[in-house]
Amino acid sequence: MASIGFNRIAIASVAIAALSASCMSKESLAPAQATRAPQLALSATSDTAAYPGIVSDFENMARVDGPAVVAVNASPLDTASGLKQLWPPPGVGNDPFLRFFREFSPAPGDDRGTLARQHASGFIISPDGDILTDAGDIAGASGITVSLADGRTYPAKVIGSDPASGVALLQISAKGLPVARIGSPTALKAGEWVASMGSPYGLGNSIVRGIVSNTSRLLPDQSYAPLIQTDLTENAGDGGGPLLNLKGEVVGIETPLPDDGRAYQGLAFAIPIDEAMKVERQLKLHGKATHGRIGVAVQDLTDPLARSFGLTRPNGALVTSVDSGGPAAKAGMRAGDVIVGINGSAVSDSTHLPAAVADLSPGATVDLGYWRNGAVRHAAVVLSSMGSHDLPVDTKNRASSGAYGLGVRNLTGDEERAAGVQGGVRVEQSSGPAALAGIEPGDIILRINSTPVTSTAQFFRKIVRSAHDVALLVDRNGTRMFVTMEVG
Q: In what residue span(s) does the PDZ domain sit (predicted)?
C-alpha cells in the first residue's frame, strides 16, 4: 500500500507542476512535459502489473458462470398438519388481537417460522444433472426442488449427504446443462479477489465480490477440513453456492455457520472444492462418505510451547487429549505428544491433520510419527470411523506459590468423575505469570509438559525443577489446550 500512496503523490505532483507550467512561457512548458510524462506512464504501468485483480470483469463472470448456479428449495417434514390453532376460536374472525395471535399460532397449513421452506444454493457439476450444495441446508427435508437460472424447475433426488464435510450431492432429470468450471483452491492467497454466486432468500441468482481473508481456517465443530475465510456478505440461501476465483472457476462451496449472534458475525466461509470433490466421488459411488479418525484433539505449537517440549521449531500438531479406547489411545499415544508425520509425510501444524486423516478409510493402518521426551517415535494406528458428532473441598489439599501466581488444590473423587478426568489440580487463584499464560480460576491442570499431574505437591516440584518455560495442559469446561507459563 505504501507504493500506491507514493505513486498517487507523484501523480499529484505532476498535476501541480503542469498547472504551474501553464502559467509560464511556451518555451518552459515543453521541457517540463518531456521530462515528466515518462515518469507518469511508468507509475501507471507498474500499478496495473502489481494489482491485476482490481480490473477483474465481474459482469462477464456473472454472464459466463451464472447459468450453472441454481436455487435449492427444501421443504420441511410435514408437521404443520398436526398443529392446533389456538386463536381465534372457530367462528371468531373479528377479534382485535387476531393479528397478534396469528404470529404465534399459525393456522394449519401456514408456511412460516420453523416450518418455512429452507432456501439454499448450488451449482451444476455434470451436464446430466449432478448438483453440489450444502448438506446442512437440506437436512431433514421431505422434498427438494431445484430452479435453474433460466427459470426451469425440477424435483431433485438426494444422492448422498455428508454432515462431516458439509457436502451434499443432488441429481435432477435433465440433459445438456451448463456446468461449473472446477478450479483449485491451493493457489488462493490472502487478499485475492473472489466472488460468490447464490440465491439469497430464494430471490434468484446474485453475485457479490470480496477478498480472501484466510485460506486455512479450522473451526471447531464445523468441518474437519480447513475452510476458506472471506469478507463476502453472507445471506440466508447463499449456503451451497460456488466461491469463484478471478478465472470464474469454483474454488469452494459457501457454508453457513450456526447463527449464534456472536462468534462469526461479518465472516463467510467456504469448503475447499478439492475436498468437496473427494466427498462427491464417495457420494456418487456409495451414497455416503466415510472418514478416518484417530481419536485425538490437537492444537498448534507456539515457539514457547515448542521449547517446552524440547523442539527447536514449532512444527507439528500438539495432542491435547486422547479419546479413551480410541485408535490413538490403543496405540499408546497420550496428551503432550507432538504429531510430526503421517505415513511419511510431514505434519507442519494442526490445521491440516484432521483432513489428512479424514481422507483415509476407516480400518486403514497409518504410521504416525510423534515427538515425546526428546525423541521421535512411531505408532501404527488403526483408524476408526468418524461419527456425526459447588462441590465439597478438602482444605488440606490446597497449595499455592506466589512466585508463579498460582493457587491450586487437589481434585475430589466427585470432581474427577464430573469432569471426566483422572488426577490433576484445580486452579483457585491465578495472577502474575499464571494469569499472563491465560490460566483462570476453575481450570483443571492435567499435565506439566508430558507428565500427568497427580497432586499439588508433585505439580509444584515439577515447576521448581524446570529451568525454562513449562507447558501446562488445561481443561476448561471440557475443552483442553496447552498454555505456556514462564518459570525462569
A: 288-374, 398-478
Radius of gyration of the chain (CA): 30
- Bridge partners (DSSP) of residue 154 are 146
DSSP per residue, 12-56: HHHHHHHHHHHTS-HHHHHHHHHHHHHHHHHHHHHHHHH-GGGG-
Q: Mean of the pLDDT values across residues 325-336?
A: 92
Residues 200-259: tens digit of each pLDDT: 776 778 889 999 999 988 875 667 888 999 998 777 668 899 999 999 999 999 988 755
DSSP, res 412:
P
Are both 428 and 317 inside the same structural domain? no
Q: What letter does residue 182 receive in the DSSP assignment?
A: B
Query: For residue 454, is it within any domain?
Result: yes
Count CB atoms within 10 A of the CB of residue 147: 17
Range of the domain at 440: 395-485
Other beta carbons within 10 Å of 47:
15
Residue with cell 525454562: 468
Mean predicted confidence (pLDDT) in 184-205: 86
Q: Looking at the 3D structure of the chain, how many domains does it have?
A: 3
- Tens-place pLDDT, residues 84-114: 444 444 554 454 444 444 444 444 444 444 4
Rounded to an integer, what distance in angstroms lies between the CA atom of residue 225 and that of residue 222?
9
Instruction: Say if residues 299 and 350 touch (Cβ distance below 8 Å).
Output: yes
Query: The C-alpha cell of 461 is what?
Result: 516440584
Expressed in angstroms, the distance from the first to the final Cα of the chain is 41
Quick one: which of 172, 164, 133, 474 has its CA closest to 291? 164
Give, in degrees to the nearest 5, the angle at Cα 332 between 331 and 335.
120
Contact partners, residue 431, CB within 8 Å, separation at least 6? 405
Q: Does 24 or 359 have the greater pLDDT score? A: 359
Q: Are residues 124 and 263 in the same domain?
A: yes
- What CATH number does residue 270 fall under? 2.40.10.120
What DSSP character marks residue 81?
G
C-alpha grid cell, residue 97: 388481537
Closest among 449, 451, 454, 452 to 487, alpha carbons compared: 449
How crowded is the C-beta side of 32, counted as CA atoms within 13 Å? Answer: 17
